[in-house]
Design a protein that fits this description.
Layout (H helix, E strand, L loop, with lengths): L3 E8 L2 E8 L4 H12 L7 E4 L21 E7 L20 H7 L14 H11 L2 H9 L5 H14 L8 H10 L17 H11 L5 H7 L7 H4 L4 H7 L1 E8 L10 E7 L2 E4 L13 H9 L6 E5 L4 E13 L3 E7 L1 E4 L10 E4 L9 E3 L6 H27 L7 H11 L3 H13 L17 E11 L7 E9 L2 E6 L2 E6 H5 L9 E9 L2 H17 L1
Parallel strand pairs: 1-4, 7-10
Antiparallel strand pairs: 1-2, 3-4, 5-6, 5-9, 8-9, 10-18, 11-12, 13-14, 14-15, 14-18, 15-16, 16-17
Helix pairs in contact: 4-8, 5-6
Pfam families: UCH
Keywords: Hydrolase, Protease, Thiol protease, Ubl conjugation pathway
Family: Belongs to the peptidase C19 family.
């Protein structure tokens, strides 16, 4: 945001207009509010009218450049000067619960555990903050009882500060998927797998109507070329188009590779390690690559060239990226128990610690075709960063904006033919295809972590699930059913496993527009220099 913006402050049933510059910071805004209202800075509690601006009380280190040109807020606090109030001050406790929730003045609502429903509660809290998917869900909620009850549960959470019992959705879920209503041998509902619940939910939110898709993409449904095979709401938001290649080393060139494509909404991280293990997976990226390579195992397929079955190498790569990616940490596995009387086997949990980063680069996971699309923006960024570093080393004394002015002067002197040639040259650097629906034109394949479903315990049939969700910047919340606690990014990155503490099971990532990030940073730096 550049130039002056306006903060509309509602206090004491009066309205005040406070112009401000993002470069001046929150302290200057509070000083202006004090000058107009008489409320001392240390008594001011400034809350947004809508949670899309900032969460809770405005903090002194908040980046004002992220705000729109006009912002409306509520001011809580008493004036030091003896101004004659026209009406009584509106205190937080006097607001309706819905207004308090929307303003973000209190921590968001949790979900009541209805009996071993923590797997459902934690997953819903993560999806609650998947904004584009939720817009599509709301637009198509009349399509079925399932989507209607799910959207209603989200709306209840958004308008409440007290824990919400998701009775309506829970009833609909059991009706559509009876396995989630199974009873345990100890009594009560049996614990279920959060990934199995997510898969069922994704299946039931595959809304294909135009209104749902258009709402998810900001009001207009993308054409078939942009969707690139994605079908329905969830698949267009989370769907990965996978390209699989089978090769037969034994047959060599006599046997051509077999190609196939498939759609999936979850990416798997294969976890292996320990004494005697073929692969030692310590990081999410390595586990994802191992999963894409079929766990490092060959598959037996008939070879026409050899006239018999042979071992083939199977490798999959992403050929279309989505705006959101869910990665399942493959911690649960079935262990055969031949020595037991029932020979039924048991479901075990891989406790091995697997680290993950706040940001994830998907380039190595992609097909050659998709890497070619991502390469242009990535190379451009690398060149720009190299040029900036070079200028810094040279100690350039050019003033800010000199290059822009010189370029404008040069363009003024160009004839039309030269301008057209320059435009074509610049356009050649832009990708001709998008990496996936809803992604920026110059997408580089970088995602940021915004939600995690964690599991605590030794197996999936017991233990406990919690949902961890980013609010803004370094601020996170952990939803432990009806209890909500504030956390930081450092707490999230510690969820790597290795013991009986909470460990990540479903990691949710969202695409980053790094070009937009760069522009925002540059504008902030320019305003800071002008101030």
């Amino acid at each position: 945001m550049s130039g002056m913006s306006t903060l509309t402050v509602n206090w004491n049933k009066n309205t005040y207009t406070v112009p401000f510059s993002a470069a001046a910071g929150v302290a200057a805004v509070k000083q202006s509010i004090q000058d107009q209202t008489g409320v001392p800075i240390d008594r001011q509690k400034i809350m947004p009218k809508t949670k899309k601006t900032w969460k809770g009380i405005l903090k002194d280190d908040f980046d004002l450049s992220s705000l729109p040109a006009t912002v409306e807020c509520l001011l809580m606090g008493s004036a030091e000067t003896h101004l004659i109030p026209q009406t009584k001050t509106v205190f937080l406790e006097d607001l309706k619960e819905e207004d308090v929730a929307k303003a973000g003045a209190e921590l968001p609502a949790g979900l009541v555990n209805l009996g071993n429903t923590c797997y459902m509660n934690s997953t819903l809290q993560c999806l609650r903050y998947t904004e584009d998917w939720r817009k599509g869900l709301s637009a198509g909620k009349s399509s079925s009882q399932f989507t209607s009850s799910l959207d209603s549960a989200f709306e209840q959470l958004d308008s409440s500060i007290a824990p919400v019992p998701p009775v309506g959705f829970w009833s609909t879920l059991k009706q559509q998927y009876p396995q989630f209503g199974e009873q345990s041998q100890r009594g009560g509902f049996a614990q279920q797998d959060a990934q199995e619940f997510l898969n069922s939910l994704f299946t039931s939110t595959a809304l294909s109507d135009d209104a749902s898709i258009a709402a998810a993409f900001g009001g207009e449904k993308p054409d078939a070329k942009v969707l690139n095979g994605a079908q329905g709401l969830t698949n267009s938001m989370f769907g990965l188009k996978m390209k699989t290649v089978l090769t037969c080393p034994e047959a060599g060139d006599a046997e051509p590779p077999k190609h196939d494509t498939a759609e999936q909404n979850v990416l798997q991280c294969n976890i292996q390690g320990g004494v005697g293990a073929k692969h030692q997976i310590d990081h999410l990226n390595a586990g994802v690559m191992l999963g894409l390579d079929n766990g490092g195992e060959d598959v037996e397929v008939h070879s026409e060239a050899l006239g018999r079955n042979a071992l083939w190498q199977k490798k999959s790569r992403i050929d279309r990226l989505p705006k959101y990616i869910c990665i399942q940490m493959m911690r649960f596995f079935w262990k055969q128990t031949p020595d037991n009387a029932d020979h039924a086997g048991t479901k075990c949990k891989m406790m091995r610690p697997v680290t993950f980063n706040e940001r994830m680069d998907t380039f190595d996971f992609c097909s050659d075709r998709l890497q070619a699309i991502l390469k242009g923006p990535r190379d451009k960024r690398a060149a720009e960063e190299e040029e900036r570093a070079s200028k810094k080393l040279r100690g350039s004394d050019k003033k800010e904006g000199d290059e822009d002015v010189a370029m404008e002067d040069a363009e003024d002197e160009m004839d039309e033919e030269t301008k057209a040639a320059l435009a074509m040259s610049l356009a050649a650097d832009e990708p001709t295809e998008k990496a996936g629906p809803g992604l920026p034109d110059n997408f580089e394949g970088i995602y940021e972590l915004y939600a995690v479903v964690c599991h605590k315990g030794r197996d999936s049939d017991s233990g406990h699930y919690t949902g961890w969700v980013r609010q803004d910047g370094d601020n996170w919340l952990v939803f432990d059913d009806d209890e909500v606690v504030e956390k930081t990014t450092a707490d999230i990155l510690a969820l790597k496993g290795g013991g009986d503490w909470h460990m990540s099971y479903l990691n949710f990532y969202r695409a980053i527009d790094r070009t937009a990030e760069d522009k925002k940073r540059e504008e902030k730096e320019k305003e800071a220099k002008r101030a």
